[in-house]
Design a protein that fits this description.
By secondary structure, the chain is mainly alpha-helical. α2 packs across α3.
């Protein structure tokens, strides 16, 4: 049995912030974590200010605890893919559920049509049935779509193939023509 070793984790160097606004932070948190937490905090508080305004004493915790929890748990390594943060894994999962799978056709030369996208029911798998069975979720059935993508193909294409056999003399002449053009 072969065993593979990945050494890239050993080279995962991160910069740390040892001082912030004149305050010594000791060993210091990673800068990437600080920037991510700051962005999450600004977006979260900005949205809540736009929707609800200044926080009251009751909702003050709602303004400050969720960004801290998202940053703390999101900055930890994912258990599924060791090189990713949980935040990246969560973002890709949400994107997959919202946008879905769009197939790559002919190496990306043609964009997939809407009918070729994987429907939400197929993306959720067996969880789709459990979701529809929950109380008050009867209206979700229409949003889930069918099991398989709708067929967007037209009628079958018939190929009229006539095989030709080229001998070495024809190949030699073609090669000579190619060299004289260069």
């Amino acid at each position: 049995m072969r065993v593979g070793h990945t050494y890239t984790r050993h080279f995962d160097l991160e910069t740390r912030q040892h001082e912030l606004l004149g305050v010594d932070l000791g060993e210091g948190p990673p800068r990437r974590l600080l920037v991510t937490g700051f962005v999450i905090y600004v977006v979260w508080v900005g949205v809540l200010f736009l929707v609800f305004g200044w926080p009251s004493r009751v909702f003050f915790v709602l303004y400050f605890v969720p960004p801290a929890l998202i940053t703390y748990y999101g900055a930890q390594r994912s258990k599924r893919i060791d090189r990713r943060w949980n935040l990246t894994h969560w973002a890709l999962t949400v994107r997959y559920l919202m946008v879905g799978h769009r197939p790559v056709i002919n190496g990306g030369r043609r964009a997939a049509g809407r009918a070729e996208w994987l429907p939400l029911r197929a993306r959720l798998g067996e969880r789709a049935g459990r979701l529809a069975e929950l109380p008050g979720m009867g209206g979700v059935e229409g949003l889930l779509g069918g099991d398989e993508p709708k067929s967007a193909a037209g009628r079958a294409v018939t190929l009229d193939i006539r095989p030709r056999l080229y001998g070495p003399d024809v190949v030699y002449r073609a090669r000579r023509r190619g060299r004289t053009k260069q």
